[in-house]
Amino acid sequence: MPRTPRGAVTLAEEGPRTPRQRRGAALLTVVLLGVVGTAGYLGVRHLTALAAGEECRVTASEQTFEWAPDQASNAAAITAIAVKRGLPPRAATIAIATAMQESKVRNVRFGDRDSLGLFQQRPSQGWGTAEQILNPEYSTNKFYDALVKVEGYTDMDIAEAAQAVQRSAAGEAYAQHEPQARVTASVLSGQTARGIGCTLEDPSGSGDPEAVAALVEKDFGISGDAGDKRVTVVTESDDAAWAVASWAVARATDTNAVRVEVGDRRWERSMDESSFAWQPLGDAAGDARSVTIHLA
Fold first, then answer.
1. Model's pTM, two decimal places?
2. Residues 180 and 288 in one domain
3. Spatial separation of the C-alpha atoms in residues 50 and 190, rounded to whole Å
């Protein structure tokens, strides 16, 4: 779910819809009434885009999957923490697939009995307090704490490894999410460069460089240099740079980022199709291991 730059939870389902959301819903209703029975696959996709507006896409190995911005942000936090802990992308794949099944990668305040959060962890089963579980970084770390205790988890099927942690009544259900989880983890861990893009509305406020730098350190354990409307992060490898850059795009809706630059590429925030791709920087190309996050 959307969060402040400092990571505080803000649950979209708890608040009233914005005027933009109400206008979008009304527009969708009118259009749907005019095309019921005639819209094909492409038409349905277009109408869905009109209603949703903002969207993130991840692409790797010639596969593309779509996320809502709040889901992409949570997936980015899940993957960044795996990187911080030195875990393989496989761990992030398992965690994302689990969160897809349990919460649709949304930090929900409800579930079966006292289940809460991204992974539907239960306070009564020793996962932590409700407040702790609703902190995505805390709940993700608790998931990984349990996962790394599963002997041979890196060689297991995704569903088997997830079930070893979750002990769900329907453990086989995790398997269906493997393709999207695998591509997302590959992109957000930096294994696949230039693999994420998001179309986003203009920020509603200014970004806080100090807060964004603190969030980078919280998720990745890397210090960032906070300047005037920007944060610069110097990493130890090209993969790490792309992990931070991809994270910055996925979490732009939280941080009010408007542009991300890494090496010879940049992502620019807009609602245009161009924001699904990384554009060349040309003569302005910088260090391949340095990421600059520009804020509103």
1. 0.82
2. no
3. 30
